[in-house]
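User: Here's a structure from my thesis project, written as structure tokens. My advisor, Dr. K., wants to see whether a designed sequence matches the one we expressed. Can you design one independently, without my sequence as a hint?
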């Protein structure tokens, strides 16, 4: 007998950058979506197929009750980095609800499994926590958001594309829309056995940072090499880190931290599961 696909979903962090794309993509699949938001939030999406429940994420009993009332099977986190600690009580609530069969932690970036650096370690610990709780998980690695290419180059602030990395190692980038669309596609079409405790690796575009910078150079934005991102730029450390990380190969979704090599074939790139989809390139997204 064929497995029944998941049909009931809840999203936390739906008002954020990638979260709204996940909700919109699920709604486009004609499934009902529950949006969990804090009582103080004013940015939750709404509509005939997106119900909103306001509850404190740290209220394990309250979240469990809401999940149970809506018979949620898949709980998706799209929380920003600073709110990741809320994933622990949310996972405990999902377990207590009894109906949740899959938890999707907020990854949507470069591979983190086995990472020992602060940013990677912080995300990796939540999947380990889910395993300890006995809650199945699904990780989605999508590389750098394509929207961030001009951001890490400080194009808006400096009027130039600042390069602090060598920039000659291929990296993966994916638009937020494609991330949301891909996740919605796989969790509504693949059987649960293909989703539980899995890692999916995708990329909407692939090139070196130098090659992405050249796209801007052709659009009359000069490239300037620098030792580091200027401290007067907001989140300079993060932009510097992402550029430097690209030199190690770690921003490629094919990168396996544990083995220190790129994965090959379908194991390293699972774009093909979204058959027929046309991925948005950096050039197309930014009209370069």
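Assistant: Designed independently from the structure alone:
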């Amino acid at each position: 007998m064929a497995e029944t696909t998941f049909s009931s979903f809840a999203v936390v962090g739906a008002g954020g950058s990638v979260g709204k794309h996940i909700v919109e993509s699920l709604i486009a699949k004609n499934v009902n979506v529950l949006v969990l938001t804090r009582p103080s939030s004013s940015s939750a999406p709404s509509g005939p197929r997106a119900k909103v429940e306001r509850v404190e994420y740290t209220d394990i009993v309250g979240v469990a009750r809401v999940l149970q009332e809506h018979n949620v099977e898949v709980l998706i986190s799209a929380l920003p980095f600073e709110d990741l600690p809320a994933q622990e009580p949310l996972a405990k609530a999902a377990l207590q609800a009894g109906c949740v069969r899959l938890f999707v932690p907020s990854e949507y970036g470069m591979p983190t499994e086995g990472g020992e650096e602060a940013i990677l370690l912080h995300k990796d610990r939540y999947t380990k926590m889910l395993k300890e709780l006995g809650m199945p998980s699904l990780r989605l690695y999508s590389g750098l958001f394509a929207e961030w290419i001009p951001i890490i180059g400080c194009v808006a602030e400096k009027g130039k594309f600042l390069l602090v990395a060598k920039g000659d190692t291929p990296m993966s980038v994916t638009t937020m829309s494609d991330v949301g669309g891909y996740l919605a596609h796989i969790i509504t079409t693949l059987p649960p056995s293909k989703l539980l405790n899995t890692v999916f690796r995708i990329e909407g575009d692939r090139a070196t940072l130098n090659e992405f910078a050249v796209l801007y150079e052709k659009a009359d934005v000069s490239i300037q090499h620098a030792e580091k991102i200027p401290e007067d730029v907001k989140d300079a450390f993060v932009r510097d880190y992402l550029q430097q990380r690209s030199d190690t190969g770690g921003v490629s979704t094919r990168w396996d931290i544990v083995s220190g090599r790129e994965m090959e074939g379908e194991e390293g790139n699972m774009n093909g599961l979204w058959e027929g989809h046309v991925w948005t390139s950096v050039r197309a997204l930014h009209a370069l």
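When you compare it with your expressed construct, this may help: The longest helix spans residues 118-133.
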